[in-house]
Amino acid sequence: MHRYPEISGTVVARKDASPLAGAAILNGGGKLLATADERGRFRFQRTDTSLRMISVAYPGYETHLIQLGEVTSDRRLEIVQLGEGFTLTVAVEAVPHNGKPTVVKKARLLRTTEAQNPIPFLIAEKSVAENSVVFEDLEAGRYGVELSGDEPLEQLFVPVDLAASRTIDIAVRPLDVTISALLGDTVRVNTVIDLAALRNLWRATINTGASGEYKGLLWQRGLFAANVHLESWQFFASRTIDTRTEAAWDIVVPDRRITGSVVDADTRRPVPDAAIHYDFKGGDGAIYGAMLPVDENGQFVLFGALRGEYELHVAAPGYAVPDHSVSVVVDEQAKESRVEIPLMREPGRIVVFVDAATGAPVAEAPVIELRPDGRGVMRMLTTDDTGRARVGVQGNETKTVYVLPVSGSIGVAHIISGEEPLRVEVPPPSSTIHIKTQMQDGSPVRSCRVLLRINGETIPPTVMSLFGSLHRIPSDSGSDGDLSLPGMPVGLYELWPYRGSAPAEAAPPVRANVATGASTIVLTFGG
């Protein structure tokens, strides 16, 4: 019988450490997970594998968020201390538009983070009555108020920093917006467009319909991003909308494309598992990169090619990484540029990644090979359901790869060539590490990145960034100087403040033995 990990803890009042019996432990949707007993203790089984964060609430006290990350074994949390809560009152001015009332239906309060790509956590959702709404029992921190109506673009997000009880005024001023998508000069009908209000944390999906135009009301102002769905491809565009009354956005997708195929250099057969990453450099100096999907027949199509140079970087399991990228120059006249990319098979070794504690295969996990300078990804493979991946290695070469199990932890393997499969044991994700960065006077160090060496293996910052992206956690410290790393292996940790490409100091400022459960490490700067 499968047993789910159990999460337990204790809730007390910060002022006198008295237990808060009846405190509610909730998930991100507000569902009750557990209630604290007369001694403030709670426990629940984590049956939802997507649960990454919980909140602890008690009437009259602040609602506190706890980041869980990956949980693969029983975990006892640090004592939760709740202080007196604050109140946020939102007064809404719904400005009429074209003689019609503007109706604000709902208000959502979201807790946000300091990370570059903040992940909002829903605190509360309420109906707006008489243009006012009150949120109570809040802890200090960064929030966002999101107002919404009935239509997709009737959304408005306003950031709020809360350090004490306060009242904020939000004015909702709709504007008429018309959005269309064109392929060259041809209007695209029934086209799906995903819109995102950048830095405002909301998204919406619209459809241009049979007329080829979406007409509606937009509440937000600022920078927007649009992804236009074209067959298997999406075209990205962005624009700032800050007008008062109306705006028209014709998203013009250039009627140019790059097509091609990835084939085996010897057999000329298609390579179905190829991956293409391209870098684009336009005439205006703009540079960006993205992934280009390759189908099961080794074919790829990039719609809406812009004028400029595309550098295609191709990789496929079992094939050597080409010495050079494939360059495609797109000019004004070229409606289609076609290229065939041959790949040479590479000698390699099968590596079987298993959990060191259970022997279970580490399935569907990214396996990362870095560039020689360690500052970028050369190749990223994925283990199959048996934990296997073929790592390209030949001769007397030794290749270092990093594996990131979806359940947490970090594994390091040094691969040499050989005929037999190599078994690599990956330590289980048994601990949560809280790193506190501070100056000599105790003040926090914000946005600090930390270089780690775990059991003698240095973990490059690129790998830690990928670890953070995989588990949706920040890879640098927040405004409080704290960095939380759930799902980490146990053992000897050595820490340095990361200073770009500079090597680690001869002696690490901090060494710590990390055991199962939660551990706190303090990294002090200066002096």
Characterise this structure.
By secondary structure, the chain is mostly beta strands. The chain folds into six domains: 77 residues, Carboxypeptidase-like, regulatory domain (Immunoglobulin-like, Sandwich), CATH 2.60.40.1120; 87 residues, Carboxypeptidase-like, regulatory domain (Immunoglobulin-like, Sandwich), CATH 2.60.40; 79 residues, Sandwich (Immunoglobulin-like); 87 residues, Immunoglobulins (Immunoglobulin-like, Sandwich), CATH 2.60.40; 79 residues, Sandwich (Immunoglobulin-like); 95 residues, Immunoglobulins (Immunoglobulin-like), CATH 2.60.40.10. The chain contains one helix and 44 strands. The strands form twelve sheets. Strands 1, 4, 7 and 8 form a four-stranded mixed β-sheet that branches. Strands 3-2-5-6 form a four-stranded antiparallel β-sheet, with no helix packed on it. Strand 39 and strand 40 form a beta hairpin. The longest helix has 11 residues. The protein is flat and about 75 Å long. The model has no long low-confidence stretch (mean pLDDT 88).
Summarize the structure.
It contains 1 helix and 44 strands. The chain is mostly beta strands and 527 residues long. The chain has 6 domains: 6-82, Sandwich (Immunoglobulin-like); 86-172, Carboxypeptidase-like, regulatory domain (Immunoglobulin-like), CATH 2.60.40.1120; 175-253, Sandwich (Immunoglobulin-like); 257-343, Immunoglobulins (Immunoglobulin-like); 348-426, Carboxypeptidase-like, regulatory domain (Immunoglobulin-like), CATH 2.60.40; 431-525, Immunoglobulins (Immunoglobulin-like).
